[in-house]
Design a protein that fits this description.
Helix content of chain A is 42%, strand content 18%. Chain A has 15 helices and 17 strands. Chain B is mainly α. At the B-C interface, helix 1, helix 2 and strand 2 of B face helix 10, helix 11, helix 12, helix 13 and helix 14 of C. The structure holds magnesium ion and zinc ion.
């Protein structure tokens, strides 16, 4: 990326809602059903049908508005957006244009070492289109209308994003919020969380926006990052040549990592928005909004603050845990167990919590990404993992042993307790046993003892090795170090 | 307001209506006449527009509970279709992706 | 006349006294349709299942008493409302083969009450027109003078009741499409308050103006049918929850003490002198019965046609975007590309009036013109609404002509769309203001053409309108056109 330019990005996210039924008919809202099996005259756009607005979709809109601190409008209006396309049964999409449900709002994203506030411009309700299919069909396209009428919230940010990393963090945070409040499953592969980007460049520090290009078809966080980098380079080269960027819509091609212009349109689109006459203005009871406010669960950002406050962990660690909500719940449960073990073992809780966080964010997170949420239950439940961690704290096993044990547990579905016992891994930390072995080694190697006492500290390692050998590897190495030093200095 | 043939052509394209040359000419004349007639509205002093044609009441809107009802069978969905293939509606090849 | 019954009340009496069976009643009308309709063209489809249904109803009647006055009652439906088992064509080539997958709400309620659908009636294509000449399926003739139009767009439904091919029918009214043909054919036609009757299953023309209503021989029947089909169905969010019985209560009584407004704007230039004379006679009847007349002003009403042809066409252009030949409807075989598919389907599937309105509406909504046309029209619409609101602080009803002239001749206005549009000049304001309005027969012209008297009331005042209509109807009497009186003989039973 050329250093003299600053990237200006605004994101438009279309998020499908976790309703049971569609936005304007009561056909099921479900992915993966046989083609055209979830349709009715309404979502087929038959003559004579009328839309009936789904209460749950509005409720989920209100929840998102509360979570992002938007203005929730007590009165909003649906409009028709016209264009012809085979997956759009009525020839128009019912959307909101002039009076959306939500405006304003804020999302804080990570920006390098700091943070940046990205403003939300507006969020409106609309219906999804069906699906056109071309692959493997000769001379024709096929249309499946199961998705026709599925409720969407379109979340439009202000052009406040400045780097691909910020864009990805914005999307991750947004998705996290949508999931935590039960608005969407945020599944990018199934298309329930889709993102378009408006990208322009301007001289760094400038205040005037450059010509923006819209990028579509980025269906993973990685592709968003790639597409933005590519587009930034492309536009920078155009500007460096002294040419102008053309305002257009480009598609990201994941096989080449490039953005390509969409086939040019014969003419500019004119959507002819006008208020949907089949739906009266939507008037919300203010009491309903307050009810939803009271019912709203803890939001990700609140959770991060609480976890770091309550458990004394670093903010970054808390954020990493909260990125996966299940994992942060798991952490809380495990922390409670740690407190119990600390009480019994008489060691400081903080020490255990620190080890627990590190263990979760390395070992557990890795397995979780590999094997899914199944590893958070059963023999690998929060309590069991806490027990494993407390064995490390209590120096019964080493950290490396704990990692090995955990890996075995994941594969064998045995509890850490069982695996440690089977492998006979318990460290020997008892004063008596260690003292005995140390005494034996010192008696067997008087020359080395002598050399050490004369200042040749190199032989210390040899003596430790001998003690470990005598214990068949089970002696606690730190404790051996300490006790041997004491014995030699006597 | 006098509509040109080009304007009629543009509007026809927006509406996905193809017109013959004669029709373009004919509609240009006819629509101009109608527009001249409706033009009188532009001479009126008017209050600001309402938000919606259906300004009804101040009562909260009655919304529909999110309870599924059975869909129709795919055969029924396709029963009026001029062309289909398996359980899909069939259309001429779409060359232009996105919209 | 040769009928088995004339009103719903006499039907119920005959039915319950077993003076005739339901099958006989239905056969009577099917026979009249068979005998007369080839010369009138009111019906597009006659229901092949009507007799079967009548028999089933008779069988059930043998065991259980009828639960509704409409049990066994024959009725005709405009061909823009869905009846399962019959095509819904909207008199358009586009929908010539369309088979609905469910009943319209109004039809559902009729069937639940036990009514028998006789068939589907002709109309202007997609309800766009004022003469039923815009039907792709052929014209419908006015039974009072078969060289004249029946009015439109619900011409078929008006003719069906006028010529006694059906005792009652349903039509739809967007700018006068019930009242204007009712006036031309000499029957009563009612457009209810916007939001009274569910539009679910009515093929949309202009969503914010369309309303379904009855054609009848008398006010009482119109009331009963309106009550039956009114009220929320959970499928049309524009329907309001008003108790239909309110209409029944307000129907009782006379016009004594009623204040009826006469807007001077509706009685000026352009009103045919014979129509004016007939309406003067009507006014005297109401006066004599104790109504008080009061001049009022509705200055913005004269812009009604302008406003209407922007709002209705904008909504129509949008509503008709769904006809693309993908899921249903006409598709041209010659379409190789997607663009061809759209353009050919719409070029070959729609008639000229529909195209004209799609073009006008698309233009009125297009970028750069929307403020000047669509929005401007909406502003004037609110003005018209406010003027009516103000008027109804002073008067109980507004009295006006339904049409400027009696029925005109075929072809007379077809080549001049603006002249055709102006035949709706008196009916349009009620749609724009969402108000209930009806046309009831006044005295005919010297040459025997029907004249309609229009009454417009405040929202939800259908009962009051019908009460005033009944007073006039008692004075005028119901008249059946000669063509329909010359019986159809033998076919009856
Ligand atoms: Mg959108
Ligand atoms: Zn559906």
């Amino acid at each position: 990326m050329s250093t003299e330019y600053e990237m200006v990005v605004g994101l438009e996210v279309h998020s499908q809602l976790l309703t049971r039924t569609k936005l304007f008919c009561r056909c099921e809202n479900r992915f993966g059903a046989p083609p055209n099996s979830l349709t009715c005259p309404v979502c087929l756009g038959h003559p004579g049908v009328l839309p009936v607005l789904n209460e749950e979709a509005v409720r989920l809109g209100i929840r998102l508005g509360l979570a992002l601190e938007c203005s929730i409008h007590h009165r909003s209006v649906f409009d028709r957006k016209h264009y012809f396309y085979p997956d759009l049964p009525k020839g128009y999409q019912i959307s909101q244009f002039t009076y959306p449900l939500l405006t304003g709002g804020l999302l804080t994203v990570r920006s390098g070492e700091g943070t940046r506030e990205v403003r939300i411009h507006r969020i409106h309700m609309e219906e999804d289109a069906g699906k056109n299919m071309h692959a493997g069909i000769r001379d024709a396209s096929h249309v499946d209308l199961n998705r026709s009428g599925v409720p969407l919230l379109e979340i439009v940010s202000e052009p406040d994003i400045r780097t691909p990393e910020e864009a990805v963090d914005y999307l991750k945070k947004l998705r996290q919020i949508l999931r935590s409040i039960g608005v969407s499953d945020g599944n990018m592969e199934e298309g329930s969380f889709r993102c378009d980007a408006n990208v322009s460049l301007r001289p760094r520090g400038g205040s005037v926006f450059g010509t923006k290009v819209e990028i579509k078809n980025m269906n993973s966080f990685r592709f968003v990052h790639k597409a933005l980098l590519f587009e930034c380079d492309r536009q920078a080269q155009i500007l460096d040549r002294g040419e102008r960027v053309v305002s257009e819509t480009r598609l990201f091609d994941s096989s080449t990592g490039r953005t390509l212009p969409m086939r040019s349109k014969e003419e500019a689109l004119d959507y002819r928005y006008f208020p949907e006459p089949d739906l009266p203005p939507i008037l919300l009871d203010p009491a309903w909004i307050e009810e939803e406010r009271a019912r709203l669960p803890e939001l990700p950002q609140e959770r991060v603050s609480r976890l770091s406050r309550e458990f004394g962990i670093r903010e970054e660690d808390a954020e990493a845990l909260v990125l996966e909500e299940d994992l942060s719940r798991y952490f809380e449960e495990a922390s409670e167990a740690i407190q119990e073990f600390a009480g019994k073992g008489g060691w400081p809780v903080e020490q255990g919590t620190l080890r627990l966080v590190n263990f979760l964010l390395s070992e557990v997170l890795r397995e979780w990404n590999r094997k899914g949420a199944g590893i958070l239950v059963g023999p690998l439940s929060a309590r069991e993992v806490s027990h494993l961690v407390s064995m490390v704290v209590e120096e019964q096993i080493s950290l490396n042993q704990a990692k090995d044990v955990y890996a075995v547990c994941v594969e064998s579905l045995k509890s850490p307790r069982e695996v440690v016992a089977e492998k006979n891994l318990f460290q020997e930390s008892g004063d008596e046993a260690l003292g005995g072995w140390i005494a034996e080694v010192m008696a067997e190697n008087p020359g080395e003892v002598q050399s050490y006492r004369e200042g040749k500290e190199r032989v210390f390692g040899f003596l430790v090795g001998q003690v470990m050998k005598k214990s068949a590897g089970k002696a606690n190495p730190q404790k051996v170090n300490r006790m041997l030093k004491e014995a030699l200095s006597r | 307001m006098k509509l040109t043939k080009e304007q009629v052509l543009h509007v026809a394209r927006l509406a996905s209506l193809s017109l013959t040359d004669d029709e373009e000419e004919h509609f240009a004349g006819e629509l101009s006449g109608i527009l001249d007639y409706v033009e009188t509205l532009n001479r009126l002093e008017l209050p600001p527009p309402g938000i919606h044609v259906l300004e009804q009441s101040e009562e909260p809107t009655l919304l529909d509970p999110d309870t599924p009802r059975p869909s129709i069978r795919p055969e029924e969905a396709l029963s009026n279709a001029p062309d289909h293939s398996g359980a899909f509606f069939r259309v001429p090849r779409i060359l232009e992706e996105g919209r | 006349m040769s009928g088995l019954f004339t009103t719903l009340e006499s039907f119920v009496k005959g039915r319950d006294e077993r003076a005739f069976s339901i099958e006989e009643a239905v056969r009577h009308y099917l026979g009249r349709i068979e005998g007369l309709d080839s010369g009138l063209g009111a019906f597009l489809t006659v229901n092949p299942n009507a007799i079967n249904r009548a028999r089933q109803l008779d069988n059930r009647l043998a065991r259980n008493p009828a639960h509704s006055p409409f049990y066994g009652y024959p009725i005709a439906i405009k061909d823009n409302m869905h009846v399962l088992g019959l095509p819904t064509t909207c008199a358009s080539r586009m929908l010539a083969n369309f088979r609905p997958l469910e009943n319209a709400t109004v039809v559902e309620r009729l069937l639940k009450a036990g009514a028998v659908i006789l068939g589907k009636t002709n109309m202007d294509e997609f309800a766009m027109g004022s003469s039923t000449e815009n039907s792709a399926m052929g014209i419908t003739r006015n039974p009072w003078d078969t060289e004249r139009v029946p009015g439109g767009s619900s011409g078929g439904s008006a003719v069906a009741v006028s010529a006694d091919l059906a005792p009652l029918s349903l039509g739809s009214d967007t700018g006068g499409s019930i009242r204007q043909p009712a006036a031309f054919c000499g029957v009563l036609g009612l457009k209810p308050t916007y939001g009274r009757v569910s539009r679910y299953g009515l093929v949309a023309f202009s969503s914010s103006l369309d309303q379904i209503g009855p054609f009848s021989r008398c006010a009482q029947d119109a009331l009963e049918l309106t009550v039956l089909v009114s009220g929320p169905d959970g499928r049309d969010m524009t329907v309001r929850d008003r108790d239909p019985q309110e209409m029944v209560r307000e129907f009782d009584g006379s016009v004594r003490g009623m204040t009826i407004g006469i807007p001077e704007e509706f009685f000026g230039d352009g009103l045919d002198p014979e129509v004016a004379a007939s309406l003067e006679q009507a006014r005297e009847v109401w006066s004599a019965e104790g109504a008080v007349f009061k001049p009022i002003r509705l200055p913005s009403a004269r812009f009604g046609v302008n406003v209407y042809y922007l709002i209705a066409t904008s909504e129509a252009a949008s509503n008709l975007s769904r006809y693309d030949g993908v899921r249903y409807g006409y598709r041209s075989l010659s379409s190789q590309t997607l663009k061809d598919m759209y353009q050919n389907a719409r070029r070959e599937g729609f008639g000229p009036e529909v195209k004209r309105r799609i073009l006008l509406g698309t233009f009125a909504l297009s970028a750069g013109y929307q403020d000047q046309y669509y929005r401007k029209a909406q502003q004037v619409q609110s003005l018209i609404r406010e003027e009516f609101d103000r008027a109804f602080h002073e008067v109980d009803l507004v009295f006006a002509p339904t049409t400027p002239t009696p029925a005109f001749r075929f072809g007379e206005k077809l080549s001049d769309p603006l002249a055709m549009y102006l035949s709706d000049i008196y009916t349009i304001s009620a749609n724009l203001a969402g108000l209930p309005a009806l046309s009831t027969p006044s005295w005919p012209t010297r040459s025997g053409l029907p004249v309609g008297a229009q009454l417009i009331g405040p929202s939800w005042s259908e009962g009051r309108l019908l009460r005033a209509a009944r007073v006039l109807e008692e004075a005028v009497g119901f008249r059946t056109p000669p063509i329909a009186v010359q019986a159809t003989g033998g076919k009856t039973l």
